[in-house]
Amino acid sequence: MYALAELQERFDIDCLIDVHTHPFAHRSVNFSGVDDRDEINFVKFINENFDDMHYASIVFSQEEYEARYWRCEGGKTSASPLAIKTSTTGESIRNSKEPDCDFTRIEPELAIDGFLNRTALALGHETLKEIVGSSSVMIVGVGGLGSVIAENLVHMGFERLILVDDDIVEKSNLNRIVGAYWEDAEAARPKVEAVARHLGAIRPSVVVRREQKKIEDVKVDAEIASLDWIILATDNHSSRFAAQELAFKLFIPFISAGVAITVDDGMISDYSGEVIVVRPGDRFCLTCLNRLNPTKIAFERASELASAEQHTGRKETADHADLRPDLQRLKGYVLGANVKEPAVKTLNSVLGALAVEQLIDQYTGRTEQQPILVYERNKQSVIYGDVESLENRNKNCITCGIITNY
Ligand SMILES: [Zn+2]
Ligand SMILES: [Zn+2]
Questions:
Q1: Which CATH superfamily is domain 118-292+341-391 in?
Q2: Which ligand is nearest to the CA of 400?
Q3: Range scoring the smallest mean pLDDT among 83-97, 228-242, 260-274
Q4: Are 63 and 91 within 8 A, CB to CB?
Q5: How far apart are the first and last CA of the chain?
Q6: How far is the CA of 178 from the centre of ligand 2 (A)?
Q7: Ligand 2 centre and the CA of 402: distance in Å?
Q8: Which ligand gives the minimal distance to the CA of 371?
Q9: Prediction pTM value
């Protein structure tokens, strides 16, 4: 009743999932006749009283589960089996019904070509199977950091990647993009093409999808909706914001990696980076951790709008005029806007490797979960888990928070 009352007041929910247990069942579990009857009545009720509300149900025994998705068309109800996909191997629970889409049952042939022999010795066959067989990762931004991450992923055994970047290779980024050559800059080749070619040369069997566009423009299809991880490797605040939005919308866990080199009077005053792991339900995100600067997001979006207008030769239209802030004035407030940031490959390599290690450990469960991992190389070199940021985050975050009225 509480849930239904809340549903009527909310406009941001499009799916209701009914979860209950059969606590005396040890392993195999099935929906009972009572469950069937109740849920058929309930899906009819939902269908009559809510627009576009989806309904699914899960029943757990002590060790397994069964799940299904209900449809109601023209008064006729039907259910199809579902599988629950979790972001880490450790959280994976056996499905009693083994539907076609059971992600835990895929058993690929491993290392026929020898490529993964040494990795298998390190990670073990089970972990590697998980990575190879059922994992796909999208990397947003394949510049200095994203290209290192992509290369590390392929070397570690990941076989399905989606690269998103609308930029082309320039001479000024050849000092750090893995896989980009001098001729790529001369040919103004897209970064996604250069990096994808490199990955394919390392291991021909990897499947790399290229999206030469901004993350905001990437169309969500089945492949993207079923991604296992998204890795954010762009220094652009508005695309990081958009990537986070996408991840939350699709319930995909993500890893944000970033580097910073600050130079004052010709001297490096800060040389650091961090990796943040955000999984749905963790109750923190880049917004409440203060890792996204709203002024920068506004500035970047306005700049894009302005340059799009320049390209199309279109003058400010009436509906754009009030949306668009005065860029010149805004520039003064945004520290470092349009200023080329210093960037070196060594720092990218450290953080790129850390990001992939954080990801791998999600599969091995070997280390304690450290949501924010910081690398600093200033007076001293350290890697530490940033607990303080986590504790001081905004606890009423509307991006990742779950607001309940009861
Ligand atoms: Zn039941
Ligand atoms: Zn948040």
A1: NAD(P)-binding Rossmann-like Domain (3.40.50.720)
A2: 2
A3: 83-97
A4: no
A5: 11
A6: 32
A7: 10
A8: 2
A9: 0.77
